[in-house]
Amino acid sequence: MRAVSAYAFLHGRVSVLASQLQPLERLRALIDDPDSDQGDYFQSAGLGELSEQPPADVRELEQRLASVLIDEAVRLGRGLHPAASALIHHFVRRFEMVNLKIIIRCKLAGCSGEEIRERLFDLGALPGGTSEEILQADDINESLRILEAGRHSVLAHQLRLVLSESHEVFLVEAAIDYGYFSALARLVSALPVQDRQDVQAYFARMFDQINLVWLIRYRLGYGMAPPQTFFLLIRASGQINRTRLAALAKLDTLDAMIDALPPNLASAIEGLTTVSEVEERFVELRLRQAANVLNHSTFNLARPLGYLVLREQQLRNVHEVLKGRALNLPKDLIRRAVGGGALGEAA
Fold first, then answer.
1. Which whole number is the average pLDDT over 71-100?
2. pLDDT tens digit string along 304-327?
3. Backbone angles phi, psi at 233, to 5 degrees
4. Rounded to whole angstroms, what are the CA distances from 102 to 80, 99, 161, 320?
């Protein structure tokens, strides 16, 4: 059984970082009053440099906010056993996946290496980033060989299968998303028993929710065939096992999918009519779950993950506000782009 002392330092570090999760209303006030002093909010949110040295443009803003999340994840992973550290680091590897999408999309379009490099995220201290190696590859096949030689071998296989049949960008990006979450599922399974028990419930719900969003998008939005849809779904879930996933993939209306779901999942999205509505509902639920984990658990691996989920949403909201103000967008449009409730407060 794991000693509480093993996570005592991590618990304290998370508690300090969690003080940066400011109520959403404080940020919304900056939308309603653009002339207000935003420095106080950004200092409280651990983002003081944004007011002291404002970003030159939206791209710099995106990079600086990404760097905040990456740096905090690396800090939270220090001192943990390798399996726990790898899981925490993987949370911000989505930026590595964004880079991979950019590289493959641009290589298919014939962009120059310099054009691609300008669009990539700097992954900072995140261990083992592969973006530069893949960028320097001569062609897509060489890029896939580089992926296959490292920890992304499963993703490389998936991409090779997709690219052998189609160069449709949305299919390539769907395969990369699949690779990210499949790797996440494997990392959860590789945790020691106690750590796995601490985080399993959250991830099981998340995998179910992600699969449902993808099912609706691929089947009803893109019109993909059931076998192709099933091929791109995560093979790890809570209540929706592989048999049920395969059955859901054969359905062709949202109502039919909802009727075939377990009661608690069906009730969560009952009355919704579009994939964007379903996705927004599940994001809201995951934020509530993360807040509950952060506020009502102690000395375990779930707390830093709950913090990172909430922190990412906070940084997304800051990005929407500052981007909207930089582009002189209407206040109502900016307000609609900002969501997530009172971050850090459990429902």
1. 95
2. 999 999 999 999 999 999 999 889
3. -100, 150
4. 32, 5, 19, 21
Closest by CA to 174, choosing from 158, 187, 186, is 158
Taking the C-alpha atoms of residue 222 and residue 51, their distance in angstroms, rounded to an integer, is 42
d(CA 96, CA 149): 16
Task: Provide the sign of the torsion angle of the four alpha carbons 47, 52, 54, 59, taken in this order.
Answer: negative
Could you give the 3-state DSSP secondary structure of residue 111? coil
Please give the DSSP secondary-structure letter assigned to residue 46. Answer: T
**Residues contacting residue 134 through CB under 8 Å, at least 6 positions apart:** 100, 103, 143, 146, 147
| Model confidence band, residue 205 (pLDDT cutoffs 50, 70, 90) | very high
State whether residue 199 is helix, strand or coil. helix
Q: How many residues does the chain have?
A: 347
Residue 51 has pLDDT above 90, yes or no: no
Residue ranges of alpha helices (H) inside the chain are 8-18, 24-32, 39-44, 48-52, 58-77, 82-91, 94-109, 113-119, 131-136, 140-148, 153-165, 169-189, 193-215, 226-231, 242-249, 254-259, 263-269, 275-296, 302-326, 331-337
pLDDT category, 148, cuts 50, 70, 90?
A: confident
Give pTM, 2 decimals: 0.93
